């Protein structure tokens, strides 16, 4: 970099470790961008030193109502993501049941809720669906993040527009599908 730059990348290596770090000029703060170990051409991320704080939902005021919201939102997502199919209703119902039970037991951690849904859906028969347990559990996590206003990834802040939750792509209401 020229003298007008704020720093440069430097690479350090020995027999077992290669690391790359951005080394700023003396008048700037130090920022380490990444450190990776190299073994036989495979990169593995360096261990994290600080765990991430869990993302928590507020304690439920009405877990059954939250379950109805999740069932409607998940059914809308399932029907919009690929094709509406009869299995979507049963999938949304099962995920909602697990969610409500977990919330009634006091679980507020979004990661734990997603893992509980994933674990329970592993016994579910997805043979009549385009989906699997990982897709459904991840969709639930995304919907919960959206409900909290958390930007999840890649500039896409919502799974569905808020006015589409509970509505199918053709404008029909899912209310009859979930009751």
Structure characterization notes:
- The chain is α+β, with helices and mostly antiparallel strands and 179 residues long.
- 39% of the residues lie in helices and 15% in strands.
- It has helices spanning 63-81, 86-104, 110-121, 133-148, 175-178; strands at residues 7-13, 18-24, 31-39, 42-45.
- β2 (18-24) and β3 form a beta hairpin.
- The radius of gyration is 22 Å and the shape is globular.
- The model is unreliable at 1-25 and 27-41 (pLDDT under 50).
List strands and helices in order, with pairings.
Layout lengths: L6 E7 L4 E7 L6 E9 L2 E4 L17 H19 L4 H19 L5 H12 L11 H16 L26 H4 L1
Antiparallel strand pairs: 1-2, 2-3, 3-4
Helix pairs in contact: 1-2, 1-4, 2-3, 3-4
Provide keyphrases for this structure:
179 residues; alpha+beta; 2 domains; 4-stranded antiparallel sheet; 5 helices; 4 strands; disordered N terminus
Q: What is the structure about, briefly put?
A:
Helix content is 39%, strand content 15%. With 179 residues, the protein is α+β, with helices and mostly antiparallel strands.
- The helix-strand sequence is EEEEHHHHH
Uncertain regions spanning at least 5 consecutive residues: 1-25, 27-41
* Quaternary structure: single chain
- Terminal CA distance: 64 Å
Rg of Cα set: 22 Å
The SS-based structural class is alpha+beta
The total tally of domains equals 2
pLDDT averaged residue by residue: 75
| Helix coverage percent | 25-40%
Largest sheet: 4 strands, antiparallel
Strand content bin:
15-25%
Number of strands: 4
The shape, in one word, is globular
Number of helices: 5
Give the strand line-up of the largest sheet.
1-2-3-4
């Amino acid at each position: 970099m020229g003298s007008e730059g704020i720093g440069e990348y430097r690479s350090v290596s020995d027999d077992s470790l290669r690391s790359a770090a951005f080394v700023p000029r003396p008048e700037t703060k130090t920022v380490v961008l990444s450190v990776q170990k190299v073994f036989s051409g495979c990169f593995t991320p360096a261990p994290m030193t600080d765990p991430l704080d869990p993302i928590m939902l507020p304690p439920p005021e009405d877990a059954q109502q939250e379950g109805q919201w999740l069932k409607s939102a998940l059914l809308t997502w399932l029907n919009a993501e690929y094709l509406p199919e009869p299995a979507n209703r049963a999938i949304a119902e099962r995920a909602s049941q697990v969610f409500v039970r977990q919330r009634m037991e006091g679980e507020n951690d979004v990661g734990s809720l997603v893992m509980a849904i994933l674990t329970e859906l592993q016994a579910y028969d997805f043979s009549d669906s385009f989906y699997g347990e990982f897709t459904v559990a991840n969709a639930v996590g995304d919907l919960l993040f959206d409900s909290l206003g958390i930007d999840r990834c890649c500039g896409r802040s919502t799974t569905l527009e808020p006015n589409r939750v509970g509505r199918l792509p053709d404008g029909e209401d899912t209310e009859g599908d979930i009751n």
